[in-house]
């Protein structure tokens, strides 16, 4: 079942808030709900009702495959187009795909965080 725009955004928000140590707010503009872990962005939810998209971090190879595989996945808006993708409502965009994209984005940020000294 495809996720409509508002459901896509709600699914992304719920997935992000279920992850450990996540904060969110509107640091850039009132229309962009930004989710961070350890001060690093991993999800942006666009609040514009005419442009219901989410933007997540993605490995470049996987990002290219996603853009080729889904008409409503595009290179990331607002950010480096090789490392970010934007998902909008459309064929094949399911709640599971959205949740996986948010979790994968979070994991990419966590992996790159400095490790605490022993």
From TrEMBL:
<protein>
    <submittedName>
        <fullName>MmcQ/YjbR family DNA-binding protein</fullName>
    </submittedName>
</protein>
<dbReference type="InterPro" id="IPR038056">
    <property type="entry name" value="YjbR-like_sf"/>
</dbReference>
<dbReference type="GO" id="GO:0003677">
    <property type="term" value="F:DNA binding"/>
</dbReference>
<dbReference type="Pfam" id="PF04237">
    <property type="entry name" value="YjbR"/>
</dbReference>
<keyword id="KW-0238">DNA-binding</keyword>
<dbReference type="InterPro" id="IPR058532">
    <property type="entry name" value="YjbR/MT2646/Rv2570-like"/>
</dbReference>
<dbReference type="InterPro" id="IPR007351">
    <property type="entry name" value="YjbR"/>
</dbReference>
């Amino acid at each position: 079942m495809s996720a409509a725009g508002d459901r896509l955004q709600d699914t992304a928000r719920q997935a992000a808030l279920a992850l450990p140590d996540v904060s969110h707010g509107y640091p850039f503009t009132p229309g962009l709900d930004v989710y961070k872990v350890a001060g690093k962005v991993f999800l942006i939810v666009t609040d514009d009702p005419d442009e219901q998209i989410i933007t997540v971090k993605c490995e470049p190879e996987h990002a290219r495959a996603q853009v080729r595989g889904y008409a409503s996945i595009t290179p990331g808006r607002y950010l480096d187009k090789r490392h970010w993708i934007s998902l909008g409502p459309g064929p094949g965009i399911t709640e599971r795909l959205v949740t996986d994209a948010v979790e994968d984005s979070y994991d990419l940020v966590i992996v790159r965080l400095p490790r605490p000294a022993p």
